[in-house]
Write a structure and sequence with these properties.
The complex is a heterodimer of chains A (732) and B (166). Chain A is of the alpha+beta class and 732 residues long. In chain A, 25% of the residues lie in helices and 26% in strands. In chain A, helix 15 crosses helix 16. The mean pLDDT of chain B is 97. Classes of the chains: A alpha+beta (732), B alpha+beta (166). The interface between A and B is large, with 63 and 64 residues. The complex binds FE2/S2 (inorganic) cluster (2 copies).
């Protein structure tokens, strides 16, 4: 039986707060944690299938053109080699998030350097790898453009134009007009993309590392020209995603073709270099920020324009201005994004697409405005929190920016006195502080989950939702346990298998609120069934706690009530009018202290505080970890992360973890996370909002502002590497 | 020719190209040890060989005749986790869990390195024994990348175990 909820109204019942089990929100350790820390959690490439073959992908050593010959005979005699796959169905690019259909196929038409063009299959990995290196291919290379500044740009739909920004700038008491650049980023999840495909003549089963099985199944079925009912995807553990595993990637389809052709399981794991070269990049950006303010620092004009890039034919454009739409006031507004078509690998979602690069620029520009206006930057932000969505007039549902700024400032010990650069030096290090706001629009999607209250008094939650490190296993158990009066250990959660009801997928920070609501809806239906069985009109008259049901007149154990018969309900949650009627978003504030070396320009993080409001906290421990992760990403994008392309042939120069610098342990100082209490009735029936991306929306701007406050270097180009800081540093 | 992994003896592979990492993951079937880069750049493949931590992707299996390898499975089990495994669980020193076996193997051997007086870049006075400061832990754990960004929790977990002298 399916219980359905389309959320058209605010849900102010706060049902979870009225429950008695007392586990929701608690810092419970991850339910799958012991498996992870003892090496027993099985990731995509780690299943042992009898007779499994190994496939190694061959990629194009040029950026644009056509592969004319793939000479199988050049490797077929090599030891262990079984076949070479260069099928028309192989996909040329990974699918964008939520595509649900095949991405571009025909891999022999090459659009970017490193595009997969063939798969060599052999008995062992070593044999396949060796043969892949020796596969003879011929190709025709065409000229291509790799730099966004060299092409005609296309404007994106959805620009905001309101009032007259130019006039507001001209009339402003204080204003800034600054250009920024940010470099491309890679998700660089620690687990490389991997798939093991297995065809039993009926069903194609693929164990893969994917974030959104509910969409991925359609992408794979379409690529293979199979009915969805003939495809099964399994992703029980995913070694990080960050957007890179939203859609199926090339190894999934290549392994599937090989397995169906050979009648044996085939494993394909991308090398780290292949992951860098073929999986989604975050686009580099060029941005222009125009802010106009009156004498009190109130914004009268707000302009944010961006240029981003992607391959021809891709619908995705880094949504740089996403938070700028609503974060600050200003009646004269211009927000727009242009896109340039160039031949670097596909641009797509990398954690916090848009905000991750748009907000640092905005928050850095705001700091320059604060300095010009002589207003404390925390105060300037507080003065510009709009009453309602500044462009659409939509009311905010719940808005915690002011609290985040205030609580963060207090915890950090923010000095709201006059701010002058080079106020503090310790040896050869200049010390400074900076602030930035955080905002990430809240999204929910439809989701289904089945909850079964089993005869033995335990519960089972099933959905094809994934846990990519976000804590899904744990929080779904907490929601079900809270609703049904069960201890965490009595709820078993099974994820990552398309045999289960379709969840929401992990992405866009919408997983917890969406699929959590589906579990909630299923549990409400189970409670209603229990109530009706007891002849009680409303389930809220029941107290479910520690496997016991009590009500006004009585008390009974759960297992007595269900009396040997499972109660199973599928919950189906759908966002309704609520998403139109209210503007829901997570908010936050970052406070950082940095040290900048006066001779080398190196920046070291000294401490960082993040205060965040994202609705109900479902698990204090895993939620805090999400925030920590976001803050670490802020530091990486602020200081070191940058994709570098060769301007001559378009190849990615730093395509590994030695040259693309993600933060290491010693780059990260003590991080302080404050979670601001909030229930958002518009966000979801569990009052929770997204959290996975909020922690990296804007923090790099706080670091830029701290660098200026430390040493006087105004940074307009991210990442703020030592050479750039040194060049911007004024003479002493 | 054999090597031992977690006290069990294994025949060395006939193909000399097999890395120690692939031997552990594939031939020995111990997939707790992870492959993040295959190039010595991430630390996910860290195992303990004769008491010292190494990147198992950077060495060939046949170079380890008679060596004693300890992997994450050899440190503890879900029913009997080691102190560090338990501390990683309670401090949430991981998210996706993919870097985690490498982190824990690395941390296990790292604590021995500090105890035996090996200095690091974070050691202020190398003429005395290194102190177990957070900065020492951070420096010595910097060969183990965690893209989920669990670093502060990893440091907290290691600190707890080190302070308890477990
Ligand atoms: S897999 Fe060995 S260091 Fe990355
Ligand atoms: S826990 Fe995911 S990379 Fe460390």
């Amino acid at each position: 039986m399916t219980a359905h909820l389309k959320q058209n109204k605010l849900d102010k019942r706060n049902v979870l707060d009225g429950m008695q089990q007392g586990i929701i929100g608690k810092p419970i350790s991850r339910s799958e944690g012991l498996l992870k820390v003892t090496g027993k959690a099985t990731y995509a490439a780690e299943y042992h299938l009898e007779n499994c073959l190994e496939g190694v992908i061959v990629t194009a050593p040029f950026a644009k053109g056509r592969v004319t010959v793939i000479d199988e005979s050049s490797v077929m005699e090599m030891p262990g080699v079984i076949t070479v796959i260069s099928d028309e169905r192989m996909i040329a690019r990974a699918a964008q998030g939520t595509a649900g259909a095949a991405p571009l196929q025909k891999a022999c038409d090459v659009d970017y350097w490193g595009q997969p063009i063939a798969l060599v299959v052999a008995e062992s990995f070593e044999e396949a790898r060796n043969a892949a290196k020796h596969l003879h291919i011929e190709f025709e290379v065409e000229d291509a453009i790799f730099d966004a500044s060299e092409v005609e740009v296309e404007p994106q739909d959805g620009a905001t134009q309101q009032g007259d920004l130019a006039q507001a700038m001209a009339e402003a008491e204080h204003s800034v007009d600054i250009s920024y650049t940010t470099e491309g980023h890679a998700s660089a999840a620690m687990e490389p993309h991997a798939a093991i495909a297995d065809w039993d003549g009926e069903t194609l089963t693929v164990r893969a590392s994917l974030q959104m099985l509910n969409y991925n199944i359609g992408e794979l079925a379409d690529s293979m020209d199979l009915d969805e009912s003939k495809v099964r995807l399994i992703s029980r553990y995913v070694g990080g995603g960050f957007g890179s595993k939203l859609g199926i990637s090339q190894e999934v389809v290549a392994a599937s073709i090989a397995a169906m052709q050979l009648g044996r399981p085939v494993r394909v794991v991308m090398s780290r270099q292949q992951v860098f070269q073929t999986i989604m990049r975050r686009s580099e950006t060029t941005q222009r920020l125009r802010l106009a303010a009156d004498a009190n620092g109130r914004l009268t004009g707000f302009g944010h324009e961006a240029l981003v890039s992607n391959l021809p034919g891709e619908g995705f454009a880094e949504p740089v201005t996403q938070s700028s739409e609503f974060l600050y006031a200003g009646e004269n507004r211009l927000l727009k994004i242009d896109i340039a078509r160039i031949h670097r690998m596909t641009a797509g979602s990398v954690r916090a697409p848009g905000e991750a690069v748009g907000m640092p620029a905005l928050e850095a520009a705001l700091d320059e405005l604060a300095e010009k206006a002589g207003i404390d930057p925390v105060e300037l932000r507080l003065r510009n929190i709009p009453e309602e969505h500044p462009a659409t007039g939509t009311p905010f549902s719940s808005h915690k920016l002011a609290e985040c700024l205030q609580q963060g400032a207090k915890a950090f010990g923010w000095d709201s006195g006059p701010r002058k650069p080079r106020n503090r030096r310790e040896g050869e290090w200049w010390i400074g502080t900076g602030v930035a706001s955080a905002a990430r629009v809240h999204i929910v999607s439809q989701a289904r989950a089945r909850v079964t209250l089993q005869a033995d008094g335990t519960a089972l939650v099933e959905t094809d939702m994934t846990d990519i490190g976000t804590g899904t296993y744990t929080i779904l158990g907490q929601i079900a346990g809270e609703m049904l009066g069960l201890a965490q250990e009595q709820v078993k959660v099974e994820l990552g298998d398309t045999r289960h009801p379709r969840g929401s997928g992990s992405g866009g920070s919408w997983g917890a609120a969406s699929v959590g609501s589906a579990v909630f809806v299923a549990c409400e239906a189970i409670r209603a069934k229990i109530a009706s069985q007891l002849g009680i009109s409303a389930d809220m008259e029941l107290t479910l706690k520690d496997s016991t049901v009590s009500w006004d007149e009585g008390k009974k154990s759960l297992s007595d009530i269900i009396d040997g018969k499972d109660i199973a309900r599928e919950g189906h949650y759908e966002p309704g009018d609520i998403t139109e009627d209210y503007a829901a978003s997570g908010y936050g504030a970052f406070f950082v202290e940095v040290a900048v070396n006066r001779w080398t320009g190196e920046t070291r993080m000294r401490r960082m505080t993040g205060a965040f409001g994202f609705g109900r906290v479902l698990n204090e421990k895993t939620a805090r970890s999400q925030c920590l992760g976001g803050m670490v990403w802020c530091i990486g994008s602020a200081l070191t992360e940058s994709l570098l392309f060769d301007p001559r042939d378009g190849h990615l120069v730093n395509c590994d973890l030695a040259e693309y610098h993600v933060p290491v342990n010693r780059d990260i100082p003590d991080l302080d996370v404050i979670m601001v209490e909030e229930r958002d009735p518009a966000a979801s029936p569990i009052q929770a909002k997204g959290i996975g991306e909020l922690g990296m929306c804007g923090g790099a701007g706080a670091i830029a502002n701290a660098i200026y406050n430390a040493c006087g270097a105004r940074m307009h180009d991210f990442p703020m590497t030592p050479d750039r800081v040194l060049a911007a540093m004024p003479d002493e | 020719m054999t090597l031992t992994i977690n006290d069990k003896e294994y025949e060395l592979p006939s193909d000399p190209r097999v890395s120690l990492l692939d031997f552990i993951r594939h031939d020995a079937g111990l997939s707790g040890t992870k492959k993040g880069c295959d190039h010595g750049q991430c630390g996910a493949c860290t195992v303990i060989v004769n008491g010292e931590r190494i990147n198992s992707c950077l060495t060939l299996a046949i170079m380890h005749e008679d060596d004693a390898v300890t992997t994450i499975e050899g440190l503890g089990t879900p029913t009997n986790p080691s102190a560090l495994q338990q501390a990683f669980l309670s401090h949430d020193g991981y998210q996706c869990g993919y870097c985690t076996p490498g982190q824990i193997c690395s941390a296990t051997a790292m604590l021995t390195e500090i105890a035996s007086g090996l200095p690091s870049d974070a050691t202020e006075d190398i003429s005395t024994s290194p102190k177990l400061t957070d900065e020492e832990i951070r420096e010595r754990m910097s060969g183990n990348l965690c893209r989920c960004g669990a670093y502060p929790n990893i440091v907290a977990a290691i600190r707890e175990v080190a302070e308890a002298g477990l």
